[in-house]
């Protein structure tokens, strides 16, 4: 559930900042597969998945990819330290994962 909510927040944030090309990576394979599927999701996170799907159609290009926890270490570390970005450009300094 937390990964789905985090994805929704990331997609919403990207839209607010005016991004047109977006790649979301996560270490929860279930969420990645649900977003790639065209089938209706009737699981407990189905409403969140549906809301994400509605938002991603607003982007020119949207990619979703799976990364292992190790590959996701930078983002995981930031989340654990609760670092807040005051400038969206700071996000670019983190670097890209392998799938985008």
UniProtKB/TrEMBL annotation:
Residue ranges annotated for the RNase H type-1 domain, each copy included: 1-79
Molecular function as annotated in GO: nucleic acid binding; RNA-DNA hybrid ribonuclease activity
Gene3D superfamilies noted in UniProt: Ribonuclease H-like superfamily/Ribonuclease H (3.30.420.10)
Signal peptide: none
PANTHER family: BNAC02G40300D PROTEIN, RNASE H TYPE-1 DOMAIN-CONTAINING PROTEIN
Name recorded for this polypeptide: RNase H type-1 domain-containing protein
Biological source species: Gossypium armourianum
């Amino acid at each position: 559930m937390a990964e789905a909510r985090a994805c929704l927040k990331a997609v919403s944030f990207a839209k607010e900042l005016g991004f047109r090309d977006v790649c979301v990576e996560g270490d929860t394979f279930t969420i990645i597969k649900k977003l790639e599927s065209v089938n209706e999701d009737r699981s407990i996170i189905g409403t969140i998945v549906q809301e994400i799907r509605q938002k991603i159609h607003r982007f020119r290009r949207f990619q979703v990819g799976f990364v292992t926890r190790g590959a996701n270490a930078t983002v995981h570390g930031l989340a654990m330290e609760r670092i807040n970005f005051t400038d969206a450009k700071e996000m670019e300094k983190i670097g890209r994962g392998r799938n985008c």
